[in-house]
Design goal:
By secondary structure, the chain is of the alpha/beta class. It has two domains: about 5-180, Rossmann fold, CATH 3.40.50.1950; about 190-395, CoaB-like (Rossmann fold, 3-Layer(aba) Sandwich). It contains 14 helices and 21 strands. α1 runs parallel beside α3 (about 50-55), α1 packs across α9 and α5 (about 90-100) packs across α8 (about 130-140). The chain is globular and about 75 Å long. The protein starts with 5 loop residues before the first strand and ends with a helix. Bound molecules: cytidine-5'-monophosphate. Cytidine-5'-monophosphate binds next to α12 and β16.
């Protein structure tokens, strides 16, 4: 995704400039070519040497820097960029860009580039909330700039407020989303469910399962990185959700309600969640006391979301099995009216709950069985999405 992409990383004069080192490092590790361009004030907060060492490239700090290979042609970077990211972006650079000014290298590049531009503002809360900054951001947004953050939190002044640089993972996610916009799932609506549902017993306790949501989260991120509009319905929060619409739910009934709402405009539904099959018939209003010598819970069936939700979309399910894997999965594919089912052996230590790998067998409507080797959940997600692309093309 980031491999061999040229990312122009603009760094401006905010105390959050030190976080640009982390961004440059993670981008470089992911295989991107990172070209750092700093404004003069940024060099007061973090040394160009740090960013040049991390990015393995010279850092541009001035228009008149004859020793760099870019000095004679300031548009070269603008043309080379697959994406320009300014993190942190101060109120000052935002104002310069909104006014179309080009009085330093970074603003020249932004004005000259045809690549998408991402801004990650970081500043004092009052500067951020100032109507002028807000108008500038709105103007840039209307022109196609992508804004990530800022977040609420402790600011350099020691006060709490809106103005903190977005989390580095969120900034990286935004870069991936923007780079993937024209991917093979561009503009497709994909609904993904993730995590294990929790069915309350009383205000303290619930019935749950071991699912962590990793497979579903990998699917949501992979679909986002391939251009899809993703709605993730999950019981657990993923590390980053840039560009993903997230619905947090707890129970099977809540998950069903969210799925029904989301599939109205979906091209595909992928149910990776481990949905409870039973829930307590009634939820105790007060905590059940342990003085009660024994306790019997009466359970009732939850809705089978995948079987009950129907419509004109591709329907994909998972079958966690411990025996007769293919036979059971085939039966479920038929009973639930699925296009594909991913069967996995939960007794296998590499494909169980909470691990980053999975070994699945993909079964389609024609009965074709394809056993994938042990892969990371992200790789499995991409294999499944390859199938989704094929199925959508046939519709
Ligand atoms: O029947 P089984 O629970 O094995 O089916 C697994 C598949 O069905 C998964 O995709 C799961 O998300 C979905 N499911 C559901 N509603 C349930 C139980 C499972 O949608 N109540």
């Amino acid at each position: 995704m980031l491999a061999n992409k040229t990312v122009v990383l603009g760094v401006t004069g905010s105390i959050a400039a030190y976080k640009a080192a982390d961004i440059a490092s993670k981008l470089t590790q992911a295989g991107a070519e990172v070209r750092v361009v700093m404004t003069q004030p940024a060099t007061r907060f973090i040394s160009p040497l740090t960013l040049s060492t991390i990015s393995h490239r010279p850092v541009v700090t001035s228009m008149w820097q004859l020793e760099t290979e870019f000095s004679t042609e300031h548009v070269a970077l603008a043309e080379a960029a697959d994406v320009v990211v300014i993190a942190p972006a101060t109120a000052n650079i935002i104002a310069h860009l909104a006014a179309g000014m080009a009085d330093d290298m970074l603003s020249c590049i932004v004005l000259a580039t045809r690549a998408p531009v991402i801004l990650a503002p970081a500043m004092n809360v009052n500067m951020f909330q100032n109507a002028i900054t807000q108008q500038n951001l709105a103007k840039l947004k209307a022109r196609g700039f992508v804004i990530v953050g800022p977040e609420y939190g402790r600011l350099a002044s020691g006060k709490m407020g809106l103005g903190r640089l977005a989390e580095v993972e969120q900034i990286l996610g935004t870069i991936k989303q923007v780079l993937g916009r024209k991917g093979d799932l561009a503009d497709k609506h994909i609904v993904v469910t993730a995590g294990g549902t929790r069915e309350p017993i009383d205000p303290v306790r619930h019935l749950g399962n071991h699912a962590t949501g990793k497979m579903g989260h990998a699917l949501a991120l992979a679909a986002r990185d391939r251009g899809a509009r993703v709605r993730l319905i999950t019981t657990a929060a993923p590390a980053e959700t840039a560009g993903i619409e997230v619905s947090r739910v707890e129970t099977a009934v809540q998950m069903k309600q969210a799925v029904v709402k989301a599939v109205a405009q979906a091209d595909a539904l992928i149910m990776a969640a481990a949905v409870a099959d039973y829930r307590p018939r009634s939820i105790a209003k007060a905590k059940i006391k342990k003085e009660t010598p024994s306790l019997t819970l009466e359970l009732t069936r939850t809705p089978d979301i995948l079987a009950e939700v129907t419509g004109d979309f591709i329907k994909i399910g998972f079958a966690a099995e411990s025996e007769d894997i293919v036979t059971n999965a085939r039966r479920k594919l038929k009973e639930k009216g699925l296009h594909l089912i991913m069967a996995n052996d939960i007794t296998d230590k590499d494909s169980g709950f909470g691990v980053d790998t999975n070994k699945v067998t993909i079964i389609d409507r024609s009965g074709k069985v394809e056993s994938l080797p042990l892969l990371t959940k992200r790789e499995v997600a991409d294999r499944i999405l390859d199938k989704v692309v094929g199925l959508l093309a046939k519709r």
